[in-house]
Amino acid sequence: MPGNVDSLVLRSASEANNAVGEDVEKLKQHLPLLDYLRQRNWTSQPAGRSSEFVGLCPLHAETRPSFYVNARKNLFYCHSCGQGGDLIRFVQLSRHLSFRQSLAYLEQQTSSTDDSVFAVLQQTTTFYREQLDHYPEAMRYLHQRGLQDPALIKQLQIGYAPGGSLRRHLTAQGYGFDLLRQFGLLNSQGSDAFYQRIVFPLRHGEHIVNLYGRSIGTAFAHRFLPGPKGGLYAWEQVRQCSDVILVEGLFDYAVLWQAPISTLSSFDSSATDHALFTSPSMSMPIRVANTRRCRGANGF
């Protein structure tokens, strides 16, 4: 019996540790380190590799940038003070908290901002949707990409960001400039971050959790807000279908749905091919349409 008790105690401790580990990973996925830093006005520059950024260290005073963040690995390292680690380690160092205190702090931060994020993204989506009909160049771009159905455009809540008026609209709704900058909707000059872009809302469940913008001009083609992208787009609509086509981007999704063909589109880098085909909830055949190979790198 004592041996059995020890075994039960060890098993319970192991299960508890596993649960904490899962919570930590979910928290870090929900709030990436780079997004956390940028929300606190950390400025950076690309550091050679596409996933690395460098800026002044937030943990000590310095005049030459030595603080590096690897966005893909979700890690930081300062070559000046020698500190490094993940998001939780950064919170421990910057706020002088224990590991568990840092977890509690981050959980409070994410839960307290979620409702505000959902509300402002819904307001932004509605505003962009209303702008679309007033800009013929935006409608021409949609038609050029093969999206012709007004009912589908309305259903997907596709909009257009003309630039120059989002800040005025949202501040009139009671949202402060600093909050809009923190969410990534405005840049440091107060301009619309999605200027001259077609905008798709990305949902997780019933909430809009991010926006995707596709430039109709000469600016860099793709733009997302900081934070999670919602995983598999439109999964709830197609999960009961007998056959699903997996496409790379939202324009592919919209054009095929217009056909109509039930489709599914993925933005979340954590949704790997392995995860797609081993999930027990995906029992139907899934065909992958490699649109990148057909049109080049700008498949969205």
Walk me through this protein's architecture.
By secondary structure, this protein is α+β, with helices and mostly antiparallel strands. It is built from 12 helices and 13 strands. It has a 5-stranded antiparallel beta sheet, with helices on one face. A 4-stranded antiparallel beta sheet has the order 6-7-8-9, covered by helices on one side. Helix 3 crosses helix 4. The radius of gyration is 22 Å and the shape is globular. The N terminus and C terminus are likely disordered.
Quickly list its features.
alpha+beta, DNA primase DNAg catalytic core, N-terminal domain, 5-stranded antiparallel sheet, disordered N terminus, 4-stranded antiparallel sheet, 13 strands, 44% helix
Please tell me the CATH architecture of the largest domain by its name: Alpha-Beta Complex
- End-to-end separation in angstroms reads 62 Å
* Gross morphology: globular
Report low-confidence residues grouped into runs of 5 or more: 1-17, 266-282, 291-300
- Fraction of residues in H or I helices: 40-55%
Element string (H = helix, E = strand): HHEEEEEHHHHEHHEEEEHEHEHEH
CATH topology of the largest domain: DNA primase DNAg catalytic core, N-terminal domain
The beta-strand count equals 13
Question: Radius of gyration over alpha carbons?
Answer: 22 Å
Q: Give the spatial strand order of the biggest sheet.
A: 1-2-3-4-5
CATH class of the largest domain equals Alpha Beta
Number of helices: 12
- CATH homologous superfamily caption of the largest domain: DNA primase, catalytic core, N-terminal domain
Oligomer: single chain
Which class best fits the helix and strand makeup?
alpha+beta
Major sheet summary line: 5 strands, antiparallel
Overall tally of structural domains: 3
Report the sheet-strand fraction.
15-25%
